[in-house]
Design goal:
Keywords: Aminopeptidase, Hydrolase, Metal-binding, Metalloprotease, Protease, Zinc
CATH superfamily of one domain: tricorn interacting facor f3 domain
Largest sheet: 8 strands, mixed
Protein name: Aminopeptidase N
GO cellular component, one term: cytoplasm
Strand content: 15-25%
EC number: 3.4.11.2
CATH topology of one domain: Immunoglobulin-like
Radius of gyration: 28 Å
GO molecular function, one term: peptide binding
Structural class: alpha+beta
Helix content: 40-55%
Bound molecules: zinc ion
CATH class of one domain: Mainly Beta
């Protein structure tokens, strides 16, 4: 790929100063897609625009066959990524440019992805472009601020569904003749002005369910919006359309009211697509989702909640991101943080998932805290000089930290003012592109608050504040309660103390005082909630003075702000003893979160965290929190626990999961979560193998044995060398689906055999050998934590191959390889500085001799080094 493919912010700004694009007509011929021998498709783009300079360029990452500028055929000047345009009229009259070429069907989920369903041989296509892959499919000015109207014309097999952002305006049938089978040409209505990365085409024999939503308009009319749900035909039986449509209508009702701007895109289709690289994408009117949201196996309420959250996140984007779009990727957060916030907010306000902030506190914010402590962290408003940097900015800062900080902003200015500002923002900036300043102006206008200082410390600096309660006693009363704050920006090294509107919860242990006969249940209940504005390094909470000494103090109760919270010694002691007795779910999840952060920071021995999970996890009723705890426990065992303690802990995790599984109510969500935890824990606990076989044999009453659970059991059996090839093939015969094939591959690669590792390594490093999903499956099998000795020989090869990996694979795949193959499972040597660990030294050497490596690649290596350093430090602190 040519280096000009990595479009810079400078070049994009320059281009948009002298262009105004009015419309595109894009013709795609997908009639050959069912033939696997055809690797390309004809694509023709006609774009109309005015220019104030005679020269510019279109982005196009495909073969160019002809270029016509204002009616003149010219010799294409194409370097593989840019089509140079010269001789344009710059007098204000429109230019018309037509570029013809051949696009490549994608197997990496970037551009126009093609997939063949092994169940029925059917071909499915969909596009995925963000941040800059529409140029893989058609010639375009690929930057978000150059909005235009798009008309798509698609030629496809007659029996297919074809979708785009708008409804079809015209459908023409071309009967079969000697040259081709029966075809249909779909011409879609011209779209409103939008960015090219948001355009979409979906084509194939998709199964479709129709629905409808309507709402009253301010002028007394009615807004009618057709709804569509689509998935592969072979998944149709699993598509729970009624449930999906219900959340869809609830969300549209909510946003229609809250944003006071009628849904702007006409129709609303939601398509579940195969081999998808992400959770979902907000293409206006044509949202695409991972098909793992079409549950083939029993799913917990937490999974339904997560899916609803994603549906609402994407729906919020129809306004935040699609109607109003960040000008460049520096302000990506303007749409992602908002959509993330709205996903949870709308879940609570409009759906049955009124506890959505619990999962947000426990899972989503953990992502933010992790990312924000890496040396590569960045302010929410980021510095994104080019597209490779943009690609990596879809991270825990942009989504989760941004959303958490917005939650704090809502607490700071009030919900009413916040939504009033948002409504003004849509009114003022509809169909255009914006920056941070535009949003702040709207929020300041609505709230009357000066947000310049707030924005500077929250949005324009990096790092996580640390809040701790300091309680002094006067007998059995509180003499003073002070909240201390520490914070430094890891990018600049400067101290940053932020303003927090937050709540402090005081909790007391009550012994068996619930009055029930025979019930001597101990509870840990909140006795007081004190709201306070924390500023600076130490803030007293005056209302606490004179209150009874609490057993536990929880700073940031209700999770209004973004901060790591440390428990004071007395509160930690209470948590160890009585965490399971904390009756409310949100504070319980906040205490769990504080304990996990302390473990990661080497302040709490990993063994203590594991002990807490074994003691109090069994009482956890929230399945989102419980699933998070069991996953954290596995991370703690494999990364944060000293090697000497690991074998015993692995056995305890598997034993604990097994006994909880047997004790759980048959058919309950909790039972399912423990079954999954057992399957995962058994991958490093060979002694648990017979239990997995009992589960597979259906000997756990009430446990739904869907393909997802069955495969994870088989994968663990494979990893401990306890599954035969015949057995794995037998499971595939039972689940002869696309997902079954992927899971089967993961199981085969998980077998502890040096030849299998060698073959997997070879496949992974061969460009184009594996699809995106099969890359993940192979990585999971290759990097089994139990196989440290088998994969050790690849450490040197990894470092020797890094630049080649980056150069030869698409960024999506290269990113996964660089992360997934890093030798992350290492043991600290007692008494030795972790920085002297051979793998860390080798990493440092690589960084030292590769200063000129692409910044995006260096970022991944720096992050991997930091994760390992953190792990080794935690091991030493636990030793
Ligand atoms: Zn999003």
């Amino acid at each position: 790929m040519s280096t000009t493919a990595n479009l810079t912010r400078t070049a994009a700004r320059e281009r948009s100063t002298h262009l105004r694009v009015s419309e595109y007509l894009v013709r795609l011929d997908l009639s050959g897609a069912p033939d696997p021998a055809r690797t390309t498709f004809p694509t023709t783009t006609t774009v109309r625009f005015t220019a104030t300079a005679p020269t510019t360029f279109l982005d196009f990452l495909s073969e160019v066959s002809s270029v016509v500028v204002n009616g003149r055929s010219v010799v294409p000047e194409h370097d593989g990524s840019r089509v140079l345009l010269t001789g344009l009229t710059a007098d204000g009259s429109e230019n018309e440019v037509t570029v013809q070429g051949e696009g490549l069907y994608s197997r990496t989920g970037e551009g126009l992805h093609r997939f063949t369903d092994p169940v029925d041989g059917a071909t499915y296509l969909y596009t995925q472009y963000e941040p800059a892959d529409s140029r893989r499919v058609f010639a375009t000015f690929e930057q978000p601020d150059l909005k235009a109207s798009f008309t798509f014309e698609v030629l496809a097999p007659a029996a297919w569904e074809v979708l785009s952002n708008q409804v079809p305006a015209e459908v023409e049938d071309l009967p079969a003749d000697g040259a081709h089978p029966a075809l249909r040409r779909w011409t879609f209505a011209p779209s409103p002005r939008m960015s090219s990365y948001l355009t979409a085409v979906v084509a194939g024999p998709y199964h479709r369910v129709d629905g409808h939503w309507s709402a009253a308009l301010p002028d007394g009319g009615t807004l009618e919006v057709p709804l569509g749900l689509l998935c592969r035909a072979s998944l149709a039986e699993h598509l729970d359309a009624e449930r999906l449509l219900e959340v869809t209508r609830q969300g549209l009702d909510f946003f229609h009211e809250a944003f006071a701007f009628p849904y702007p895109w006409g129709k609303y289709d939601q398509v579940f697509v195969p081999e998808y690289n992400l959770g979902a994408m907000e293409n206006p009117g044509c949202v695409t989702f991972t098909e793992s949201y079409v549950f083939r196996s029993a799913a917990t309420r937490a999974q339904y909640q997560a899916r609803a959250n994603t549906i609402l996140h994407e729906m919020a984007h129809m306004w935040f991101g699609d109607l109003v779009t960040p000008r460049w990727w520096d302000d990506l957060w303007l749409k992602e943080s908002f959509a993330d916030y709205m996903g949870a907010h709308a879940s609570v306000a409009a759906t049955e998932f009124t506890d959505a902030w619990v999962a947000f506190a426990h899972r989503r914010k953990a992502w933010a805290y992790t990312q924000d402590q890496l040396p590569t962290t960045h302010p929410i408003v980021a510095d994104i000089p080019d597209l490779e940097a943009a690609k990596q900015n879809f991270d825990g800062i942009t989504y989760a930290k941004g959303a958490a900080v917005l939650k704090q902003l809502v607490a700071y200015v009030g919900t009413e003012a916040f939504f009033a500002g948002v409504r003004a923002y849509f009114q003022q900036h509809q169909w255009s592109a914006t920056t941070l300043g535009d949003l702040l102006a709207a929020l300041e206008g609505a709230s009357g608050r000066d947000l310049a200082a707030w924005s500077r410390v929250w949005l324009e600096t990096a790092g996580t504040p640390v809040l701790t309660a300091r309680v002094t006693a006067d007998g059995d009363k509180i003499a003073s309660l002070v909240v201390t704050q520490e914070g430094a920006d890891p990018v600049t090294g400067q101290e940053v103390l932020r303003p927090h509107r937050l709540a402090v919860g005081l909790y007391a242990v009550t012994d068996g005082a619930d009055g029930r006969t025979g019930g001597a249940a101990t509870t840990l209940r909140r006795t007081h909630r004190l709201e306070v504005d924390v500023t600076g390094g130490a803030t007293e909470v005056p209302d606490a003075r004179g209150l009874a000494l609490p057993d536990l103090v929880l700073v940031n109760d209700d999770d209004l702000t973004y901060a790591k919270v440390r428990l004071d010694p007395a509160s930690l002691a209470t948590a160890r003893e009585h965490l399971g007795a904390l009756t409310d779910t949100l504070p319980r999840s906040l205490v769990w979160s504080a304990l996990w952060n302390a473990t990661r920071d080497a302040l709490l021995p990993a063994a203590d965290y594991l002990d807490l999970v074994l003691r109090h996890g069994p009482g956890e009723t929230d399945t989102a929190v419980l699933a998070g705890l069991t996953a954290n426990a596995r991370t703690a065992v494999e990364h944060y626990l000293p090697a000497a303690q690991r074998p015993r802990a692995r056995g305890e995790q598997a034993d604990g999961a097994w006994s909880r599984l047997l004790a759980a109510e048959p058919g309950s969500d909790v039972q399912l979560v423990w079954a999954r935890a057992l399957a995962a824990a058994a991958a490093v606990a060979p002694a648990a193998a017979p239990r997995l076989r009992e589960v597979l044999a259906g000997e756990v009453p009430g446990l739904p044995l869907g393909p997802e659970l069955r495969w994870s059991l088989w994968q663990s059996l494979a990893a401990v060398g306890d599954a035969t090839r015949e057995e794995l093939d037998g499971e595939l015969a039972r689940d002869a689906t696309a997902d079954g094939a992927t899971q089967h591959l993961a199981a085969l690669v998980a077998v502890p055999d040096p030849e299998v590792k060698a073959a997997a390594w070879q496949e992974l490093l061969t460009p184009g050998a594996l699809t995106n999903d099969h890359v993940d499956a192979t990585l999971a099998g290759f990097a089994q934590p139990l196989h440290r000795e088998l994969t050790a020989p690849y450490t040197e090869r990894y470092f020797a191959s890094l630049r080649q990996i980056w150069a030869e694979h698409s960024i999506e795949i290269a990113d996964r390889l660089v992360r997934g193959l890093y030798p992350a499972h290492q043991d600290a040597e007692p008494g030795r500085d972790p920085a002297d660990h051979p793998v860390l030294r080798r990493t440092a050497d690589w960084l030292e001799v590769n200063p000129d490596a692409p910044a995006a690649l260096r970022r991944l290596v720096v992050e991997a080094r930091d994760h390992l350093l953190r792990a080794l430090r935690a091991q030493l602190a636990s030793g």
